[in-house]
């Protein structure tokens, strides 16, 4: 396998990991905003209740999946680190080959 293809594959892998990190970060942000909105809505309903003995139920919505997003974020971090190691190794091998030929 050529050093250039290893280097290119590692760069592509790093770019994919970077995109995955951005996606997971956006999901975490969206989930935390959704949780804040749900809490504020429930608080507003509580304040608007006509009688204090009325039961106020929180709005029904999809539960925020912050846990999955955090796991995805960590997986993409490991992917990025692995690809960085591949880039560094390809660089070292290429430097060694150049030193041998000169």
Automatic annotation (TrEMBL):
Biased segments, Low complexity type: 38-50
Top-level taxon: Bacteria
Name by which UniProt lists this protein: Flagellar biosynthesis protein FlgE
Taxonomic placement: Bacteria, Pseudomonadati, Pseudomonadota, Gammaproteobacteria, Alteromonadales
Ranges for region Disordered: 32-63
């Amino acid at each position: 396998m050529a050093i250039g293809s290893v280097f290119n594959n590692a760069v592509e892998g790093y770019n994919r990991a970077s995109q995955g990190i951005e996606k997971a970060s956006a999901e975490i942000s969206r989930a935390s905003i959704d949780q804040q909105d749900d809490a504020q809505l429930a608080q507003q309903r509580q304040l608007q209740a006509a009688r204090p003995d009325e039961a106020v139920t929180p709005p029904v919505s999809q539960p925020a999946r912050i846990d999955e997003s955090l796991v995805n974020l960590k997986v993409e971090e490991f992917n990025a680190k692995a690809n960085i190691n591949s880039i560094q190794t390809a660089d070292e091998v290429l430097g060694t080959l150049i030193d041998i030929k000169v």
